Amino acid sequence: MGMVEWDSSIVFARCLSIFFALIIILLSLFRYILHGGEIVTIGFLVLGFSIISLYLGQRIPIIFSLAYFLFEAFTDPSMLSKTFFLTYFLIFSFFYFKVYGLGQIFGYMVGIMGYSVLVSHLTGLLPHPSLRIPLLYGLLHVMAAMSLLSLYPSEGIVAPLHSKYAGGYIARKLLPLLVMALLVTGPIILSLRGYFPYSADVLLLAVAVAISILIITVMVHNLNITDREREKSHKRAVDAWHFFKGL
């Protein structure tokens, strides 16, 4: 049963990766049709097709993608967009040479930067104009990060999350709840920061700690129930063995 669950986790992650890659391509095409051939839009199209190429095990097209990411990084007028595509250049370079762990670390960085873009738009806390990009681009970067982190689920630093052991099982249950809770509460608190008698940063930290403790407590409780059921099953098996041994 453990191996089946481990395999199903990897299959789900791979499906998630290709799903987000296709969404990136579709949204980029709509953006291209509505606003013309923006260089960033073409970059997202290249990004989506590059993920699909790696998903299919085709590494040669990545060489052309790397060249375009460098071109994008040096020609895009937005400093933040330059940073994103330079990071994509590093990620796909590491993936091309099968250094999955380092590529995934930079994938996390893309996710954090993309989420920051989304929060800045949702809360009105916009950075310097040179660091601003459209809300849609922030969303596409977040989806790209999720796609890249799900592309090689059995490799690199994400591999323990998909293991067949109890640690992997707990992580797969715990992390999505924790991440979603923090992603939702963060923008809400920042949007209402003017109504609090103290700093929103302090409240964010307190809420993050409270949510973490609550979710961990629930998961530990569920794990304890599972362990008790396992112990009962083991005891019944031992009792049955002793019974038949005495016959």
Describe it:
- Keywords: Membrane, Transmembrane, Transmembrane helix.
- There is one protein chain.
- The chain has helices at 2-35, 39-55, 60-75, 79-96, 100-123, 135-149, 166-191, 200-245.
- It has 247 residues and is mainly alpha-helical.
- The protein folds into 2 domains: 1-164, no CATH class; 165-247.
- α1 packs antiparallel against α2, α1 (2-35) packs antiparallel against α6 (135-149) and α5 (100-123) runs parallel beside α7.
- It starts with a helix and ends with a helix.
Quick description:
By secondary structure, the protein is mainly α. The protein is built from 8 helices and no strands.
What features would you highlight for this structure?
8 helices; single chain; mainly alpha; 79% helix; disordered N terminus; 247 residues; transmembrane
Assembly context of the chains: single chain
CA gyration radius, whole angstroms: 23 Å
Mean pLDDT equals: 83
Anisotropy-based shape: flat
- Structural domains: how many: 2
String of helices and strands: HHHHHHHH
Distance between the termini: 32 Å
Helix fraction?
Answer: over 70%
Keywords: Membrane, Transmembrane, Transmembrane helix
SSE order and pairing:
Elements: H1 2-35, H2 39-55, H3 60-75, H4 79-96, H5 100-123, H6 135-149, H7 166-191, H8 200-245
Helix pairs in contact: 1-2, 1-6, 2-3, 2-4, 2-6, 3-4, 4-5, 5-6, 5-7, 7-8
